[in-house]
Design goal:
With 125 residues, the chain is mainly alpha-helical. 98% of the residues lie in helices and 0% in strands. The chain contains one helix and no strands. It is rod-shaped. Pfam families: IFT20 (PF14931). InterPro entries: FT20. Its main location: other.
């Protein structure tokens, strides 16, 4: 009976060794699969990081271009505003000059009329 018990223990030990060996084989296979998945994941994330970095560079360049365009627009707008103000000043100066010339014309016409009246009085006398 002891012999049978020791044979059973030997059989059990062989079975355990076989199960452990199978389990270790499965673990190795799963470890390889996991390592392969991690390598694939790393490659994918590296690609995404590179794409985001390129996108960030493009966004930054576009941001700088937009800032330059806004600055140029503001400069043009300020120049237009200054030109408009200058034209308003010139218009106002010309209006004042026109009014002065109208007053002067009216005054000269009055003097002319007085001179005509005096000449008529002298002639008709």
């Amino acid at each position: 009976m002891q012999e049978f018990a020791s044979q059973c223990k030997a059989c059990q030990a062989k079975e355990m060794v076989s199960e452990i060996s199978d389990t270790l084989g499965d673990l190795r296979s799963q470890s390889r699969d996991f390592a392969s998945q991690m390598t694939s994941f790393r490659a994918t994330t590296d690609g995404l990081i590179k794409a985001f970095e390129e996108l960030a560079t493009l966004v930054e360049a576009e941001k700088l271009r937009a800032m330059a365009a806004r600055s140029a627009f503001q400069s043009v707008d300020k120049a237009r505003s200054a030109d408009s103000q200058q034209l308003q000043i010139v218009i106002r100066e010309r209006q004042v000059e026109l009014e002065r010339l109208r007053v002067e014309l009216a005054s000269l016409q009055a003097v002319e009329q007085e001179q005509k009246d005096v000449m008529q009085q002298i002639i008709h006398g």
